[in-house]
Structure formats: C-alpha cells, structure tokens
Amino acid sequence: MTEDTREARTEAVRALEAEFGELVNRFRRIITENAHRVSPGLLPGAYKVFTTIVRREPVTTSALAEILTADKGQISRTVRELEELGLVRRTPDPADGRSSLLSPTALGLERLAAARAPQEGVLVDALQEWPIEDIGNLTRLLHALTSGERPGL
Fold this sequence. Notes:
GO biological process, one term: response to stress
Distance between the termini: 20 Å
CATH superfamily of the largest domain: Winged helix-like DNA-binding domain superfamily/Winged helix DNA-binding domain
GO molecular function: DNA binding; DNA-binding transcription factor activity
Shape: globular
Strand order of the largest sheet: 1-2
Number of strands: 2
Helix content: 55-70%
Keywords: DNA-binding, Transcription, Transcription regulation
CATH architecture of the largest domain: Orthogonal Bundle
Strand content: 5-15%
Organism: uncultured Microbacterium sp
Protein name: Regulatory protein MarR
Number of helices: 7
C-alpha cells in the first residue's frame, strides 16, 4: 500500500468514525427517552436489558448476562427492578429446575410499544428517498463491520 493510499484510507476511516459518533449520540438520546417513557426514572441500561429480554424471550439471567457481556449480579438486580415494575416475569426453566426463564409481560410489551411509537417510522422516513438496493448494501456492510468479516462484493 502506498503512503498516499494509507493516508486516504486513514482519513476515510476517521470520517466514518465521526459519523458513527454522531449516530451513537442520536441513539443514546432515543434510548434514554424511550427508557423514561417505559417507566419514569428507568435507566438506559435497564431499558437495554428489557429490550433484550423482549427480543430473546424466553431467556435465562445467565444467557442475558452473556449476551450483554455484563456482570450476572448486575443483570439480576436489573431484572428484579424490571419485575417490580411489572415489565418482566420469571417462569421455571423446564430444562433446569435451578434456573428461571425471563419473558416480557403484556404490560411491558404495551409500554415498550408506546415508548417506541414517537420514533416509529423515523428511520423509514429518513431512508425514504434511498434506493432499496442502497439500504441492502448498507445493511450488508454494517453486518460485515460488526461481525469482523470482509464484505462480499
């Protein structure tokens, strides 16, 4: 790789990093707002635990800690908080009597839908003028980046 190519690649990666920074900041604001709409005072971390339970249900506390790469004790405390708020429930794990399965409650799903409603369609609207092929390419490239794979061309 020539020095000019290396510099151009470095600049391109720096520009990408800056755009990701803006995107992360925007999503943090959305997650914080959604967390407060689900339950006033709910922290973004607890919202992340809750939405992961919704996506992965039923899930054990251990699996949840692994998925979120978090301390099992912290996850347990957060799950208790979500239970007290009536957002999640535990049921016995038929495969392991020492473990419980976590699932969202009807109230939890209702509150999550209401919390997400103000942002529903924002991404669809933002991409309204994009060709579907470009959306597919962006998705493919982001998957390659997050999985550490080389994108197929």
